[in-house]
Amino acid sequence: MHDPVQADDPAEALPATTAYALLGGDGRVRELVDRFYDLMDLEPAYAELRAAHGTTLDEARDKLYWFLSGWLGGPSLYIERFGHPRLRARHLPFAIGIKERDQWVACMSQAMTEVQVPDELAQRLQHAFMQTADWMRNK
Question: Which helix H or strand E contains 2, and what residues bound it?
Fold first, then answer.
């Protein structure tokens, strides 16, 4: 998710602008994750997705927040706690098909809209989320 700014002389290159920075940093990542799980809990359209998460969403909220922080180019909070994310391997116990993929992506898209992620960034993230969610399918 990193977008390096190019310069003729690499020594003069500006620091990369990350999706994390474009989103607004730590507080905004937490806001996005919290809205995502609130929607999952509230919206009937995400019922199957919600059912796959057990009785409480607290642990899932933290883990997604920690993961997205690093994935978006911010602090590697997830890796510091658990090591490499191994997303596919960690999700193998859960049946993830097209319906679950689509619900996850739709819920995240709605969360991005509701927390007012800028359109250009939301489109980039939507594409990346879809690619990742599709890769996670195991049924």
Answer: strand 2-3
CATH of the domain at 50: 1.10.490.10
- pTM for this prediction: 0.85
Q: How much is the CA Rg of the chain, to the nearest whole Å?
A: 16
Residue-wise over 12-33: b if at least 16 C-beta within 10 A, else e? eeeeeebbbebbbeeebbebbb
Which of 65, 91, 94 minimizes the C-alpha distance to 78? 65
Could you give the C-alpha distances from 83 to 62, 70, 107, in angstroms and in order? 15, 12, 27
Single out the residue of 102, 104, 139, 108 nearest to residue 125, CA to CA: 108
User: pLDDT by residue (tens digit) across 13-65?
Assistant: 445 589 999 999 999 999 999 999 999 999 999 999 999 888 999 999 999 99
Domain extent, residue 128, equals 2-135
Domain count, the chain: 1
